[in-house]
């Protein structure tokens, strides 16, 4: 809809009031009632995000010669990620604008590698489990690559089904660590073996798990191998603005070697403006996203991340116990910060809608229909409230009183 630009400017105080008024209908994430879109690590981390972002808000990562500070910070952040994800000495990476950007660039590299290094002709395809993120489909649509999704086995990728779907024109196979719908880590070890035996490019989508799984393992969690410690993994995506608790939008895309990464980079000199080199999909790259990532990672360090991620996993365990007491079935065996749960005898969409009446905004699953939470450290403070409200919503939908033990413990 067309709207004329105001003829005269307004005072910032008035504009700020209007903006806050616009936000009146937004979800109340600072109260912990949002379990999707926002990763709330507390006010201290939020302050670091904002102040570090503003310090380099006007700088542009497109110009590393002009802003060597950003180049240095990006290199250090990438180094942190590669260290956490068992990157070999020759591994490299870049900061991107988000998970979709990281996935798109990994697919672009895999496509160009198939064409230029392997000499694959004709139509190309990508093989991925049904639970893999739609960002792969978006990238495939842009690049006109056929998408072959395979059925799941116990909510996980089925390596045998993926092997059957792959052929000489397959540019990439995908595993998630974890997948978004269920919060489960696919059998990356088996996919690595498949990739090695068939010379396939394996990408691990760790957009959700890349910056939590290593710390869960440090805290004693039995997290299976999922990263570059597996020889078949050629690329990975890991979002800084998720469990890295950095400012949006910041993600990382990693490659086992600079040779593989070279197929991602855009380099053009045949125009009047001189040579243009961009490592990711974006041209202009907000300096604030890079500086905030650097600041938050240094602010937390291993000790801080272990503490934050410990809060997340303990909260997930509390919620798992609570929803089971209410008759729900947890889908699979989550190990990180996501959990999905369902009841065959209950309209879970109706339960979700009732929870919205009390300010909760969360995700849902559709296969099967269920409720879905992506937990942050702050949810440790509101887990009991969530379970009490879930019991209330369940009673409202079913007309039955929630189990007494749950009401006594969580109300």
Which properties best describe this structure?
411 residues, alpha/beta, Aspartate Aminotransferase, domain 2, Aspartate Aminotransferase, domain 1, 2 domains, seven-stranded mixed sheet, four-stranded antiparallel sheet, 13 helices, globular, disordered C terminus
What does this structure look like?
This protein is α/β, with parallel strands linked by helices. 41% of the residues lie in helices and 16% in strands. The chain contains 13 helices and 15 strands. Strands 1-9-8-7-6-2-3 form a 7-stranded mixed sheet, sandwiched between helices. A hairpin with a 2-residue loop joins strand 14 and strand 15. The N and C termini lie far apart (47 Å). Residues 404-411 have low confidence and may be disordered.
What would a concise description of this structure say?
The protein is an alpha/beta fold and 411 residues long.
Query: What spatial order of strands do you see in the largest sheet?
Result: 1-9-8-7-6-2-3
What's the CATH first level of the largest domain?
Alpha Beta
Helical proportion, percent range: 40-55%
Look up the CATH topology of the largest domain.
Answer: Aspartate Aminotransferase, domain 2
* Strand segment tally: 15
The biggest beta sheet is recorded as:
7 strands, mixed
